[in-house]
Design goal:
The chain has about 300 residues and is of the alpha+beta class. It contains 6 helices and 13 strands. About 5% of the residues have low confidence.
Length: about 300
């Protein structure tokens, strides 16, 4: 085992030596009077690697070139020579040539931006959270033509006309009226224990009524005792593409059912999972995501 580990280590060393073989020759191809410098800026997280400068360039010339990279005016730049994280000294004489400071390739020039009105100050050029984003108000968006909302609105209007036509022709049943949920209200209404078919799923009545986000007619919102529902009590507003809560419960514990599918009364206590009469879990087909209201309801 030791020999095997030794062989692995040896292979690792070979690869490392191959990758780093010419690290010491990184700057060997540069002309004698040229250096490759790393440049950093006090207001910016990014850095420029291996910017090439002629050693005969004055500090004023260096600042002018850095202005084109960072945007900081020449007279607001203070340059410091660094070796790694260590500051060696300030390049404070603009008339001196870069070679005067004995700069070598691999050194870092750090630019301190002293412009009180600098655009990069305080993350002005890098912090996207500072950017004021355009937000269109609801009235303006509602008046725009060719939007997704307008298409959905037109589709809903068309579907309503088609339903009306089918109803007039006797091809479509009327939406369930309030009489279909009278037995729910008469036996306790919201907060009452209930049982939903199919599947003998038990729970608590949490919501009763109509909603523009559901198919026409009256519905009963139920919070089940077990995760055999289809949502968390929310339905989708297809116009705004948001979830609208009609009641709240854990995901897959909620459902909306028609009155004909629900029985209400104190006898529908929560099942004892160890009891002989506990129903089998045969409702996998009734559990859906809550991205489409048609999948969240049970006619």
């Amino acid at each position: 085992m030791a020999d095997y580990l030794g062989m692995i280590k040896s292979d690792h060393d070979i690869v490392r030596d191959y990758v780093t073989a010419k690290d010491g020759e990184h700057y060997s191809g540069l002309p004698e009077d040229v250096v490759a410098i790393i440049v950093t800026h006090s207001n910016l997280p990014s850095k420029f690697l291996d910017l090439r400068f002629n050693l005969h360039t004055t500090i004023e010339g260096v600042k002018e070139r850095l202005r084109k990279h960072f945007g900081t005016p020449v007279n607001y730049q203070r340059l410091y020579l660094k070796d790694g994280d260590k500051i060696l000294f300030e390049l404070n004489d603009s008339t001196k040539m870069l070679g005067y400071y004995s700069i070598e390739s691999g050194n870092t020039i750090h630019v301190v931006d002293e412009d009180p009105y600098s655009l990069s100050k305080g993350g002005g050029l890098t912090d996207t959270s500072l950017i004021q984003k355009y937000q269109m108000d609801e009235d303006t968006y509602a008046k725009r033509k060719g939007t997704v909302r307008e298409q959905i609105r037109e589709k809903k209007a068309k579907e309503a006309l088609e339903r009306k036509k089918r109803k007039e022709e006797g091809l479509e049943e009327e939406a369930p009226g309030i009489d279909t949920i009278n037995h729910v209200n008469e036996n306790g209404g919201i907060g009452a224990r209930c049982e939903v078919m199919p599947g003998s799923r038990r729970g608590v009545v949490k919501w009763i009524g109509e909603s523009e986000h559901l198919s026409p007619g009256y519905w009963v919102g139920v919070q089940f005792d077990e995760p055999v529902g289809r949502n968390d009590g929310s339905v989708k507003d297809k116009t705004l593409n948001i979830q609208v809560p009609l009641f709240k419960c854990e995901p897959n514990f909620g459902g909306f059912v028609r009155g004909k599918n629900i029985s209400v009364g104190p006898q529908y206590v929560e099942y004892d999972p160890f009891a002989d009469d506990a129903p089998e879990d045969n409702n996998e087909d009734n559990i859906e995501d809550n991205n489409n209201n048609e999948d969240n309801i049970e006619d």
